[in-house]
Amino acid sequence: MKIRTLACVGVFCFLALSAGGCVSSKPQGYSGVTSYAGILYLGSMDGKIVAVNPSARSQELPFPSSNGEWSYPITTLSKSMLSCSSSPTPVSIYGTPVVVDGSVCVGTYSGKVLMINPSARSQNLSFPHMRGGEWIYPRTDDVIGAIVGSPVAESDTIYVCSSDGRVYALDATYGDEKWKSDTLGDKLWSTPVVTGETVYVSTFDGHVYALSAEDGSLLPWVFEAETGFVSSPVLYKDTLIVGSFDRKLYAIETDGGDLLWEFPAANWFWAAPVLDDGIAYAGCLDGRVYALNVESGEELWELDTGDFVEKKKDHIISSPILVDDSLVVATESGNVFVVNPKTGSPERVKNPDDSQSDDKPSVDAPIWSSLCALDSMVYVRAQDNYLYVVDVAEREMKLKFCLD
Q1: At 11, phi and psi to the nearest 5?
Q2: 70: closest CA among 91, 54, 52, 96?
Q3: Which of 185, 167, 186, 168 is nearest to 177 (CA)?
């Protein structure tokens, strides 16, 4: 029998929205930022998919400008607290959008997958604009389980994990269901890894499964841990790296599913590590970043972000990101560090409003979302619904833009 830790309960409370009954709640979410052709795409705290042009924002043009910017609210019908009548309510968006041939795909906590055409959205056409390649899955009023992870696009297929315990494969052009897997566990809150003909997925009940990318059938490969996974697996050559509720990072062979090594930390790993040149950079809820040799699991260095700020205890929820020759790390308290990836030596980005001391966090709100790099700038969507812009070379916060 698997160990069910209090950490699992904590994660659920962290993510859960009001469900059932006549309840009205403010949308939540921690959608990250992605870029395509110089435009940033992200989900806002009030249930919108937003397209932002960094050049237009630096010029402080009215939003949305005519330079590829738009905003599209995604809603679902829910019951009012007072009357129990149904009315459109903004959805919550946790996963980072993915761009497929210029269109934007996103999954919602309300159990829908949408493909959005930027041209149609900039013209405010009705959704879905079928001639523009837009679609929604499921097409009916039915929904699948809540989607927390990000969709993955591979060839002509969109793969998405759902809280109903299934993986779904959808046609990227039309949104038709190609297949759905058997139920793999209680819930799947992670982002799948797709490589060749195989889909790897981590589950809340402590498994990493391999599925056929062709039909979703289970392959004879599985890894089982004592506790569950909420971290998404990442692949480096023939090794999967994934963090667990048991405060360990696991390295697993894709050939046979054998455990190569495990690395213990002082708290569990929420964010997926970033892998580069044989090194895994893993942020942990213990406030540290660990640099590990992928082949051996040997620790090369560790950075305790609490050593450089007045607040000693912090969490790292978003994955680090490599930009030019630097590693950028964001913490839940709102601090952003530019780190030397060879030595772990950090510089903290100062808050531009902090004229009195260095104690104020880099940004004015918690950071839970994945980061995005574009032209040596790092874009951070914080929980105050602002998009912040970090100049990595200058170690400065350049501007912030409200997504409301």
Answers
A1: -65, -45
A2: 52
A3: 168
Distance CA 305, CA 283 (A): 10
Alpha carbon distance 310, 77 (integer Å): 44
Give me 120's structure tokens.
């149609």
Edge-first strand listing for the sheet containing 33-36: 33-36, 39-43, 48-52, 70-73
Written as one string, the DSSP assignment of 234-303 is: EEETTEEEEE-TTSEEEEEETTT--EEEEEE-SS---SPPEEETTEEEEE-TTSEEEEEETTT--EEEEE
The pTM assigned to this predicted structure is 0.91
pLDDT tens by residue, 144-188: 999 999 999 999 999 999 999 999 999 999 999 999 999 998 889
Tell the residue number behind the tokens 């523009």, with chain if given. 132
10 Å Cβ neighbour count for 390? Answer: 25
How does pLDDT run across 234-257, given as a tens digit for each residue?
999 999 999 999 999 999 999 989
Q: What is the CA radius of gyration of the chain?
A: 21
Amino acid (one-letter) located at 28: Q
What is the torsional sign of CA 31, 32, 35, 40?
positive
Percent helix / strand / coil, the chain, rounded to 5: 5, 40, 55
CATH fold of 268-404: Lipocalin (2.40.128)
Phi and psi torsions of 105, nearest 5°: -110, 135
8 Å CB contact between 382 and 366: yes
Q: What is the DSSP letter of 131?
A: G
Alpha carbons within 13 angstroms on the beta-carbon side of residue 61 total: 15
Domains in the chain: boundaries: 1-264, 268-404
Q: Please check whether residue 172 is in contact with residue 134, taking contact to mean a CB–CB distance below 8 angstroms.
A: no
Indicate the SS3 state at residue 176. coil
CATH architecture of 1-264: 7 Propeller (2.130)
Let me know: does 334 contact 361? Beta carbons within 8 Å: yes
* Pick from 385, 389, 287, 269: nearest CA to 29: 385
Position 232, amino acid: S
State how far the Cα of 315 lies from the Cα of 271, in Å rounded to an integer. 10
> Which 8-state DSSP code applies to residue 61?
P
Tokens at 65, concatenated:
């400008």
Contact 377, 391 (CB under 8 A): yes
